[in-house]
Design a protein that fits this description.
The chain is built from nine helices and 14 strands. By secondary structure, the chain is of the alpha+beta class. A hairpin with a 5-residue loop joins strand 8 and strand 9.
Length: about 300
């Protein structure tokens, strides 16, 4: 999997761009800790990147190597019909690059070099853009690190990421779910039987939760989150079908300054999701990949 510069130069950029656009299928490493593409920060370029492969067996080999490092990942097949939506979704995750692997060579492609999107500020009148790429990305790194350990400890790196999550959350606006037929707010019950209010960083994450079309999206500013929290909710669960990050929220009355939500203790996070990570660690990296549907 190495990052050798000589290997990376072997792949022609234009050829790689063509394959990213026209391949019948490509393969992505999916983190078992977040149910999202595995994200890596390159130590030399500082790109926040995902890893894609043109060959299934090469992707399986890479997944096996990461599994040996106690980084639980699987391989997901992205069909041609879903490639554009997949690339576009990387913007909402804060990912800026794709490291393409082929025959033990690599080529790093900047997302903006081949996927153009509308400027979020150019929205129709009355429409509000809801997207939190910085928070989404920090949450992915936090959960990838936290959940891969069977006996996790609060390290300086995790503390740093916790502080970033609190700071990023305070600057955003989010999507809450309301029932289509009633005024109720849906709650999510975690494995410890405590209930939390789901909150979403963007419309794609809301759509993953709302596949049955039972809910409608409502935009809420970060400062208002604590005021709409139902009495029976212990806090927030951010993107429950994705990163599934549990956040403590201190309730406030209207007009009061809201404190930034913080990730729950390591023990609580582990209770909420460790079973999934343990199962992933037990799975063979040689298993056939699932297809990535358009809802992903």
């Amino acid at each position: 999997m190495g990052n050798d510069a000589n290997q990376q130069s072997v792949l022609d950029k234009q050829s790689v761009l063509k394959k990213l656009r026209e391949s019948e299928a490509l393969f992505v490493l999916l983190s078992a800790c977040t149910k999202e593409p595995y994200v890596n920060c390159d130590q030399e370029t500082f790109d926040d990147e995902i890893w894609m492969y043109t060959d299934l067996e090469e992707a399986k080999s890479a997944a096996k190597q990461l599994l040996e490092q106690k980084i639980p990942v699987g391989v997901v097949r992205v069909e041609k019909s879903n490639l554009l939506m997949f690339y576009t979704s990387l913007y909402t995750m804060g990912v800026n690059a794709i490291l393409v692997h082929e025959k033990e060579a690599q080529c790093r492609i900047q997302l903006t070099d081949f996927v153009k999107r509308k400027d979020p500020s150019e929205q129709p009148e009355g429409k509000t853009w809801v997207e939190n790429p910085e928070l989404h990305l920090t949450s992915l790194y936090y959960m990838q690190e936290l959940r891969r350990h069977q006996k996790p400890e609060m390290t300086p790196r995790l503390l740093e990421l916790q502080e970033e999550i609190g700071a990023d959350f305070s600057k955003g606006r989010y999507i809450a779910a309301l029932s289509q037929e009633e005024k109720g707010i849906p709650l999510v019950k975690l494995k410890n039987d405590e209930t939390f209010q789901p909150l979403f960083t963007d419309i794609l994450e809301f759509q993953r939760f709302n596949r049955s079309k039972k809910f409608r999206p409502v935009m809420v500013e970060a400062a208002k989150v604590a005021q709409i929290l139902p009495a029976e909710a212990k806090g927030i669960v951010l993107n429950p079908l994705g990163v599934n990050l549990v956040l403590n929220v201190k309730r406030t009355a209207p007009g009061q300054q809201a404190a930034a939500p913080q990730p729950m203790s390591v023990e609580k996070q582990v209770e909420a999701a460790m079973r999934e990570a343990e199962l992933a660690m037990q799975q063979s990296a040689s298993a056939e990949p699932d297809s990535l549907t358009e809802e992903k």
